[in-house]
Design brief:
elongated, mainly alpha, about 150 residues, single chain, 7 helices, about 75% helix
């Protein structure tokens, strides 16, 4: 039941997010939006990480739910990086080398989609493998495009 609510909420968010860029009244609103999306992603990614590290017992349903949320959320923040949305922890290279930024974003989305597939299958060893790859894609983007 909870997963159904998450999926329905996500679908509604996706429908609204297409027009989200037009709704940003200023750079601060765009920064707030993208930072919120990344916070939710990070929270659910960390829950999977706790399982991968062995800190939390493996629960197939919980890992699958968290991976689905991370995968869905990975599609959302990009419209909040348009022209005039500079600020927050984002480095100027996002706008000066946008092709590299877009490639990094695409790589991350593919990596979390692979993590989601692994999580839905329930194969813990594959989850661990794809979790590592997804984490590396996140780190790469943070290293290149996020202020410390």
């Amino acid at each position: 039941m909870k997963l159904q609510k998450v999926v329905l909420s996500a679908a509604a968010l996706l429908m609204v997010s297409g027009s989200a860029f037009a709704q940003f009244q200023n750079a601060e609103k765009a920064v707030d939006y993208r930072e919120s999306v990344f916070t939710v992603m990070g929270t659910h990614f960390a829950r999977i990480g706790a399982v991968v590290k062995g800190d939390v017992p493996y629960n197939k349903d919980e890992v699958a739910k968290n991976a689905a949320i991370v995968s869905m959320m990975s599609t959302l923040p990009w419209q909040a990086f348009g022209p005039g949305t500079e600020g927050g922890k984002a480095k100027p290279e996002i706008w000066s080398d946008n092709a590299k930024f877009k490639a990094a974003a695409d790589k991350m989305q593919l990596a979390v989609a692979d993590l989601n597939k692994a999580a839905q299958s329930g194969d813990l060893e594959n989850i661990k493998k794809t979790f590592g790859a997804a984490g590396q894609s996140c780190k790469g983007c943070h290293d290149d495009f996020r202020k410390k």
